[in-house]
Each structure stands twice: as structure tokens, then as C-alpha cells.
Write a structure and sequence with these properties.
Length: 343
């Protein structure tokens, strides 16, 4: 009878604990991992870090030979000066074309006047045919020259009108190329994007790097999380912000305070992928299939209290009621499990 009573108490505790203090031994440490890859290619001339070295955001990791990029910048700076000179020359050509147009307008007006005069004289038979024809031809030549001049003015105006904002297109194009060249020059030095630890270092001086090809990995030391996989029948009361406790096998005997930062809403098993085929329905291997597990992410209240490693395993418990009756029992049980991690 006593044994039966104990079994009943344990079953009741097990059921209630799943609701109010859900516990799991399927937990592990996770961190954001940054693949460090250059944005430009070239030969590495300096590597400033070593394997497992701690770095701060903005620290220089490695440097690619900057000379080709410096040459490109110098070349485009000279080209920019040339483009500015070309624009100034276009402006001068427009001024000259306008001046020439003014002169030809005057000549055309004079030629027209002479033509009108010779025409009246010719009607009175007071001039020769040659002089009249000469006046007609000079007027036509003046009109043609004026037409060419006005075309030259329009051409010069159109050349100067090719602008992007307040900047001429010739200069804007070179400036864009120059900005890209300066950016490539800056990218020849690769800096740490965050505080972290260097690992998987695959780089030496003299190596040739390619764009987008990772040469080392940076573990973000400011974003440690504990991912706890809870059974689905323990998820109903879990909410963000609830207090939790974590024990890690890498720090046996200790239990750390934590807090829920996110509760997972799905796993890959429930994701449908269109394939054009009939659904693959798996047959359960037992009468009572195991419950699905969902990810719950926890953040340690004091990340400096332990030196975590990515993939470190442990256990976690979440306390859905601040003053719940079962909280002390689960804390005690969790502490026992943490001490067993010494084994």
C-alpha cells in the first residue's frame, strides 16, 4: 500500500511538474556563429589573430595586400580630374558656340538686307544678274551657317545637361567608381564584427583569399543562449520572460538562473514541402509514440558566471508560477542532477 501511494504521488508530481515546472535534460548551449570571409580577393599580407583568441568588436583580424586597390584609387582620382576638365571644356565650347551663333545671326540679317535691296533693284533693271544671284547665294549661305551654329549650340547644351542632381554624368560616373575603389581598399582590412572567440582559423600570410570564401569562424561571445527541447505536453504554460534554471555538464554541480527569451512555434516535421508526390506518412513504431519536442531558448541572467562552449549539454527547468508549490521540489531535483554531472 505504501509503495502504491508513492507511485501515485510520483505520477501526480510528474503530471503537475510538466505543467508548472517543465523540466528537460535535452538542452545545449548555442551561440551566433559568424563566418569571416573577405569582400575582396587578394594575397594575405598579415594575420593578426590566433586560434581560440578572444577579440573585441573592431579588432583587425587580417589584411589583404592593399597596393592593387591603392593603385585603382589613384587611377580613378586622376580620371576624376580629367572628367572635371572635360565638363569645363564642354562649358567653354557652349560659350563659344553661343558667341558664334550671335555673329552668324548678325551676318544672316545683313545678308537678308542686301538680298532684299538687290531684289528691289533687280526688279527695276538697275543691277546685273550676277550681283542679284550673288546676294541670293550669300543669304542662303548665311542661313545655312546659322542653322549649323544653332545645331552646335543645342549639342553643347545637351552635353552639359547630362546631370545627376547637381553633378555632371561624366564626373558622377567616375565618382561612383572611385567610391567603390575606396570601399574595396577599406575592405582589404577585415575587422571583427562583434566580440567573440576565433575558431577554425584557416589562414596564413601569403595565402590568396577569394570573395565570400570563409577563412575563419567567430563565435559571438555576447549572444550565448541555452536551447532546451521540451515535450509538447509541457508547452501549454510556457511564456517569454518566465524564470528558469540551467545546469550544464561542463560546469557540474552548479545551477544557473536564466530566463525564457523565446518559445518555438514549429519543427521541421510539420513543414510541408511541395514535391509532386503523395505524402509520406510514417507508421508509429510503438503503441504510444513519443511526444514531439519544441525549442525554448533561455538566456542566462549572469553570462559571466560560466564559460560556455557551443554545443555544451545540460538540463533546464522553467518555473511558470513565481511562488508555485512545486518550485522547491524541482529546484532540489535539478540540483541533484547537476551534482550527478560530476560522474
Amino acid at each position: 500500500m505504501f509503495i502504491l501511494l508513492i507511485v501515485v504521488v510520483l505520477v501526480v508530481y510528474y503530471v503537475l511538474a510538466d505543467l508548472y515546472t517543465p523540466f528537460t535534460t535535452d538542452a545545449y548551449v548555442q551561440a551566433y556563429v559568424v563566418q569571416i570571409a573577405p569582400r575582396v580577393e587578394g594575397q594575405v599580407v598579415r594575420v593578426c589573430v590566433q586560434e581560440n583568441q578572444a577579440v573585441s568588436k573592431g579588432d583587425l583580424l587580417f589584411e589583404i595586400d592593399r597596393r592593387p586597390f591603392e593603385h585603382r584609387v589613384a587611377l580613378l582620382e586622376a580620371k576624376r580630374v580629367e572628367a572635371i576638365q572635360q565638363v569645363a571644356q564642354l562649358d567653354s565650347e557652349l560659350s563659344a558656340a553661343k558667341s558664334e551663333d550671335v555673329r552668324l545671326i548678325a551676318e544672316e540679317a545683313y545678308a537678308q538686307t542686301v538680298h532684299e535691296q538687290e531684289k528691289e533693284i533687280f526688279k527695276q533693271d538697275a543691277t546685273t544678274d550676277r550681283k542679284y544671284v550673288e546676294a541670293v547665294q550669300k543669304h542662303k549661305a548665311a542661313q545655312a551657317a546659322l542653322g549649323r551654329s544653332r545645331a552646335q549650340v543645342r549639342k553643347a547644351e545637351q552635353a552639359l545637361a547630362a546631370r545627376i542632381g547637381e553633378e555632371h554624368a561624366l564626373v558622377a560616373e567616375v565618382n561612383a567608381q572611385l567610391d567603390q575603389a575606396r570601399l574595396d581598399l577599406d575592405w582589404a582590412r577585415v575587422y571583427a564584427p562583434c566580440d567573440g572567440l576565433i575558431t577554425d582559423l584557416q589562414l596564413r600570410e601569403g595565402a590568396y583569399t577569394h570573395v565570400g570564401q570563409a577563412v575563419m569562424t567567430l563565435i559571438d561571445s555576447g549572444g550565448w543562449l541555452v536551447v532546451a527541447n521540451f515535450r509538447e505536453n509541457a508547452m501549454s504554460r510556457l511564456r517569454e520572460g518566465q524564470p528558469a534554471r540551467v545546469a550544464l555538464r561542463g560546469a557540474p554541480g552548479r545551477v544557473f538562473d536564466a530566463r525564457v527569451v523565446s518559445v518555438g512555434w514549429g519543427v521541421s516535421q510539420g513543414q510541408g514541402v511541395p514535391s509532386g508526390q503523395l505524402p509520406d506518412v510514417k507508421v508509429p513504431s510503438s503503441w504510444v509514440p513519443p511526444a514531439q519536442r519544441f525549442q525554448v531558448r533561455l538566456a542566462l541572467d549572469d553570462p559571466q558566471s560560466v564559460q560556455p562552449r557551443v554545443g555544451m549539454t545540460g538540463s533546464a527547468a522553467v518555473y511558470t508560477e513565481p511562488d508555485g508549490v512545486l518550485n522547491d521540489i524541482t529546484r532540489f531535483w535539478h540540483q541533484v542532477i547537476a551534482r550527478l554531472y560530476h560522474l
